[in-house]
Amino acid sequence: DNIIPTEITNRSFEMGNFDGWMVEESAFQVTDEAGAGKEGDFYAKSSMVGQGSITSNSFTLQGTGTINFTVLDINNPEYAYVALYDADSNTVLKKTGPVSANEYQSDRSIR
Questions:
Q1: Which pLDDT value is given to residue 110?
Q2: For a tag site, which of 17, 40, 41, 47 has the least CB within 10 Å?
C-alpha cells in the first residue's frame, strides 16, 4: 500500500498557504485558480519569473516507499524537478530529471 506520511504538514496545500513548508525565494505561491490536473481546492504554483524551492518537513516513507506527485504547467521545464533527500545526511536519494509541461510525474519506489 502507498500510505501517505502523516508527518507532512499541509501536504496538499489545502490550508491555502505554505504552513508546514520552507519556502526559499519568491518563485511559488499557493492558489485556488482553476487548473488542469488540480486536485483539491489549492495547489502550489510557480511564478513566471525567478527561481526558488519549497521543502516539506521531514517524514518517514511507509508502505511501498512510493511517493506520487504532479507537476503541471511548467514554463521552464528544463529547470523543474522534484528531489527526495535523506534528512540526516542531506544526501539526494532520488531526483526527477527535467519534466515536460503538463507531464504527470510519479516517483518510483525509494527504499
A1: 44
A2: 40
Burial 80-105 (b: 16+ CB within 10 A, else e): beeeeeeeeeeeeeeebeebeeeeeb
The rounded distance, in Å, linking the Cα atoms of 85 and 92 is 4
**Contact present, 69 and 13 (Cβ < 8 Å):** no
The letter for the amino acid at 63 is: G
14: which 3 cell numbers? Answer: 489545502
The helix/strand/coil state of 57 is: coil
Could you tell me the maximum CA-CA distance found in the chain, to the nearest angstrom?
38
Nearest-angstrom CA–CA distance, 60 and 6: 9
For the cut 90, the answer to whether the pLDDT of residue 89 exceeds it is yes
Dihedral (Cα; 88, 84, 91, 57), 10-degree rounding? -30
